[in-house]
Predict the structure.
Amino acid sequence: MNQSLTTRRASNWIGEFDLQRWILKHIQYILIPIALTLFLIAWQTVVTLNRYPVYILPTPGNVAESWIASWQRGILPRHLGITLFEIALGFGIAFAFASTLGYVLAKSPLIEKIVSPYLVAAQAVPLVAIGPLIIIWIDTGIAQNALIAALIIFFPMLINTIVGVRSVREEYRALMRSYNASAWQVFTILEMPAALAVFFGCIRVGITLSVIGVIVVELMWADRGLGFLLNFATKSFDTPLVFATVITLSALALGLYIGVAIFERRIIRWRR
Amino acid sequence: MEEGSQADRAYARVARVWQCPDAIFASGFILRRHARIGIPACPEIFAAGFFVMNNGTLIKIESVSKQYGAPRDGVLALREVSLDVRAGEFISLIGPSGCGKSTLLKMIGDLLAPSAGQITIDGHTPTEARRARKCGIVFQAPTLMEWRTITRNIALPLEIIGAPRAARDQRATELLDLIRLRDFAARYPRELSVGMQQQVAIARALAYRPTILLMDEPFGALDEMTRDRLGQELLTLWQRARVTIVFVTHSVAEAVLLSDRVAVFTPRPGHIGRVIEIDLPRPRSAETRNLARFVELVRAIRATLRELGAK
């Protein structure tokens, strides 16, 4: 009796599939499709019972139909591509400037003292409100939207670079000094990897922020991109298309977030 | 085993010569002395013998003072400290917190500059010695880079020098064997206990075969058992690697067990009140603690600390 118990447990250890444990471990992912199905059923029921017209509240079926149709006609992919490009460009611009300036500020307390009041003041300006100005000055277009996205994520990125570089403890610097390491070696061997951990935290937040930034700008002034599509669909009472666009947008933000998270895991392997 | 360690030592000496060209000029003198003792003729080893043979002063500290902050309202950390550290010896600096013993250590390693007085290391300034990479430093915290594997952490100083990859790996493996942590070569620091991490830090400090090992309370954060074990390991390492060790500690027993001499500091502003010779036989082990002489020395140092503190 006793022995059979131990052998049974042993077989579980070796790899016999334990359904109960597996379900408990992955409970959050298992519940997602169930919750989604329940939500769709509820949605369908509400529309059917109340007989809403399509332009007020379409059924999930209408939305799916619209999504597939606009995807096949190439409308969704085109605007999605433009928005994605704007985000990437904005992100790149912000990254280049924020990391360089952040590093300089972190290394030089004097420059930081001089520059930081302006940076804080600039942060107080609602950036979306600058959008019209940029359009007045340099016309509408992809680059302009990217610029606004860049402005939105610039500040958190800057702060995180400073925090990251400053997070290097004095003893590590002393160590590098005792090895007679050059400034470049201190940067590549010590500061960059140390800052990276902090930096990724801000990229994850920043990437979703930049999606919001780009969409808001597109909604108001652009003639292409998912924000524009949203605007267009609303004005032409194509509510299913509005839903389809919103779904695409959420998928985009989620995809970017997951992408960054995977990238982070890859680079910051030592954390596991 | 014995042969391996001899080769190791010879290599260490050769490496030291590369870092100190003036030893080569002295080789004529050494040649004669070596011939008398009967060491095989190899010019590099003869020249390297300079350090071992002359057994003179390696680090000369002459009335060094350190003032933090402005002269008026700053803190005087060290007051006219003088000390000669002999080549190859194990010397401990002991004293109450804030007496400036770590400051002195940092000045030897050229991490701080003295406000007055001067330090010479084998005839050179600390800056020159640092540039020639004569000092390895170990802090109280392991200060490993958590994004590097253990091997790459140990090889870091060599990487900075620009040593080729093969040489780096070979030296890292050698050192891992020395601290008996070879199984952890590919692990990250986070996966090791603090004691192991500190061993890795010591191995890293030895990577480019420094002449001097500066240790700033290296076992301060460890539990007593690990502390004792690492102390023993350190003595073995010291004997094999033939380095001069300057060791800052709070523990009287640890200082007595490990060192050749113990320099006792006064409270701030720090000053070396007395240097006590530890004439215990080597090799030392945990058994040494039971010797009457050990107890006597510990008592003497405690008394000196009290006496200096009261002044």
